[in-house]
Amino acid sequence: MFNTPKQSSCCTALRLGFLAVMVFAGGCAAATPWQTPYNINEVHPAALPGRKAVRQTVPVVLQLAPVSASPWLDTDVYQYHLLYQNPQMLLSYRDARWVGTPAEMLESRLLQQLQRSHVWKAVLSGQSSGAAQYVLQVQLTNFVVNFSAAQAGKALVAGTATLVNAHDYQVIAQQQFTDSVALSTASAAGGASAMAKASNDFVNAVTDWAAGVQ
Question: Which controlled-vocabulary keywords does the entry list (predicted)?
Answer without folding.
Answer: Lipoprotein
